[in-house]
Known about the structure:
- This protein is of the alpha/beta class.
- The protein folds into 2 domains: about 1-175 and about 360-430, FAD/NAD(P)-binding domain (3-Layer(bba) Sandwich); about 180-355, FAD/NAD(P)-binding domain, CATH 3.50.50.60.
- About 30% of the residues lie in helices and about 20% in strands.
- It contains 12 helices and 24 strands.
- A 6-stranded mixed beta sheet has the order 1-2-7-6-5-23.
- Helix 2 runs parallel beside helix 12 and helix 7 packs antiparallel against helix 8.
- The longest helix has about 30 residues, at about 400-430.
- Mean pLDDT is about 90; it is low at about 1-15 and about 20-30.
- The structure holds flavin-adenine dinucleotide.
Amino acid sequence: MEFCCKREIEGKLAHDYLTSSVKNHYGNMTSSPRRVFVSTGPVIVGAGPSGLATAACLKEKGIASVLLERSNCIASLWQLKTYDRLHLHLPKQFCELPIVPFPADFPTYPTKQQFIEYLEDYARRFDIKPEFGQTVESAEFDENLGMWCVTSVGEDGTTTEYVCRWLVAATGENAEPVVPRFEGMEKFMATGEVKHTSHYKTGGDFAGKRVLVVGCGNSGMEVCLDLCNFGAQPSLVVRDAVHVLPREMLGTSTFGLSMLLLKWLPIRLVDRFLLVVSRFILGDTTKLGLNRPRLGPLQLKNLSGKTPVLDVGTLAKIKTGDIKVCSGIRRLKRHEVEFDNGKTERFDAIILATGYKSNVPSWLKENKMFSKKDGFPIQDFPGGWRGECGLYAVGFTKRGIFGASIDAKRIAQDIWEDDQKHRYVINTTLRN
Length: 432
Ligand SMILES: Cc1cc2nc3c(=O)[nH]c(=O)nc-3n(C[C@H](O)[C@H](O)[C@H](O)COP(=O)(O)OP(=O)(O)OC[C@H]3O[C@@H](n4cnc5c(N)ncnc54)[C@H](O)[C@@H]3O)c2cc1C
């Protein structure tokens, strides 16, 4: 019966904003109003590919959702924080959202612009209209109400509280940039530029400059190549061991081939195969200063989530000496960088290709599903998508858009089943 009342309130208030005044901690009424919105459907936080995929799968099942996005566009990572030359790292068939394949005339590795176009068409097709400029600052399950209370702040400072039965975290693995601190950073910044890759657009901004790129993942490697192509002189800091694989082998994508081989062979053998063919195509990367980890590329990915670098031409530039490989950074000085091996070199700019982190612990007040340490679900793939009390996670599998699509379908099905169960309970209660 208690549930029925809740549902009744829900039904009445769905899509209605209630404006209420709020008392500040001195007990006075504050001037800024607080809006309360009770949603009959789930609230999804984040309108990147994962949030869009979940909203679309729910729509297909007749469930409307509320999609909250802090920026002013969908897929803000792709639209606002990536460099111009970016293409999908993986072939398009592994980066599709559920239900809608990529257009047949798109290339195997669509450009960033084509990917954004695909996502915008996707949102239009399912009539997904996110609430833009809404930064979710907290979400907590109210035991008394049996609902999630999600608080977001709009660009004008207005606070809105969304009350819902289901909450989907879709804020992504790349919500905030990781910016390491180096000794002497301020001294270098007085004479040169330091920027994270989320602010890097094109090598054209660095023509003729000596640029140090920190981090040798896919982004760091590609930024080096971009800098080279625009006449800059890039150096790459390689501190850790890294697996570099050719993007294609034996006439097909390395990723696709790996997936296929994994169906028949144990992961250890597939790794061995990848390393032998890579050695044949790329040569011995150790000689270039790129040591390989002890574990094979797929085993390492499974265990730590560390993605192998798929080479798009950077290695050739390292071989010709157009890109220099450096050891770790000891400290920064005015105009200069001192490396762990004691050498000092002059640079005009530093690009930090040091990755991103999840921001879930900053807004989700919950202790069981997400790790406070790294903001990822504690349970590994494929189990981390569902928590308790109607809490879900999409896009935290370290398996890119492919993993997000699997999550989205599961979440929509689960919410649909839950909704059906509750409708049955309501109908039975009303009949009796
Ligand atoms: C350079 C680069 C290239 C990549 N290439 C590929 C590739 O080729 N293939 C692949 O599968 N994957 C790739 N990835 C991984 C990629 O990040 C994901 O596949 C995809 O963008 C993840 O989508 P998402 O929706 O989970 O996260 P995001 O795209 O990060 O979207 C999350 C959204 O949540 C919003 N948000 C965050 N916090 C809040 C908050 N508190 N309140 C409201 N909104 C919030 C953000 O603004 C953002 O719009 C790449 C990543 C990078 C950085």
